[in-house]
Each structure stands twice: as structure tokens, then as C-alpha cells.
Amino acid sequence: MPIKVAIVEDETRLRASLAGMISGAPGFCCTGAYASGEEALRELPRHPVDVVLMDINLPQISGVECTGRLQDLLPGVQVMMLTVYDDAERIFGALEMGASGYLLKRTPPKEILRAIREVHAGGAPMSSSIARLVVRSFARRVGPPAMQLTRREKEVLAFVAQGYTSK
User: Containing H/E element for 128?
Assistant: First the structure.
């Protein structure tokens, strides 16, 4: 059974390119490509998918807000952000709203497909630069000992930052 993927991207050429890449890859099926969050919120409940590739900078509601609303409408859907933004505020906003992964648009097609498989299998794929930013943000946090990461948690985060998968 192929992984059903939908795309929410306002740039027409990129949306078409992603749809073509996914449709042409064995084991994947692009079930919809939407130009706005509003369109995705209207259509996705009628055409359920496994994974949604979501841009952050959409025309009206942001991809972050759309992700939160999708999680309410379709709790089982996995949303992976695919964007040019790599700042901490947007990353953590997307993750807090329920995004399961975060890739930069410059990610090669083969890696995007690998990440879709990974998020579908329960993983949390991130571009290595994004994972490093997440790791650094934890390193900067100071709190009571109960709030600090264990040695093993830091070790696992370091592996994620190096690009290792959840396996």
C-alpha cells in the first residue's frame, strides 16, 4: 500500500514539482496538492492522507496554524514542514503545533522521500542544520536538574544532529 501524501505549497512550480516527484516514486501516491492552508483544511478531511508536506509561509493562514488545525481535524496525519525558514521561533512553533518533521526546501528529492517514509513509520526527520539548532537550544536552557537532559538524551540528540535516523 503506497504512502498517501498531500502537499500544501503556494508556489505553483514547486507544488507541481513535488507532486510529480512523489507520484513518480515507487511506494508513494500524491493524493492532493493545495495552494493554501484554507484549501487543505477544506479538502483533506474528504481525502485523508498519511503525510502532509507543509510550507510555512502561506498566503492567509500560516503553515504553522494550518498544522495545528489539521491535527485537530485529522489526529493521525503526520505533518512534515518543508520550508526555507530555519529560525528557532518558526521551528519550535511548528513542532509545538504538531509537526512531526522539519526539512528545508533545499533538501535533495531522495532525502525528502526518505523523510516521508521515516515520518510515516513514526520518526521525526529533520534537516541536520535544523536538528543542530534544536540541540543547541536545549544546551542553552538552564533549569532545575529535573529539567535538564540526561547524558543519554544528549547523546541521542547529537546523533540526530549528525543526520542519523531513529533506528
Answer: helix 128-140
H or E, element range at 31: strand 28-34
- pLDDT, tens digit, for every residue of 12-70? 999 999 999 999 999 999 999 999 999 999 999 999 899 999 999 999 999 999 999 99
Q: For residues 122 and 91, give the distance between their C-alpha atoms in angstroms, rounded to a whole number.
A: 19
pLDDT 10s digits, 87-128: 777 888 888 888 998 888 889 999 999 999 999 999 888 877
Residue-by-residue DSSP string for 58-123: -SSS-HHHHHHHHHHH-TT-EEEEEES---HHHHHHHHHTT--EEEETTS-HHHHHHHHHHHHTT-
- Domains plus CATH for the chain? 3-126 (3.40.50.2300)
Q: Give the whole-angstrom CA distance, residue 20 versus residue 23.
A: 5
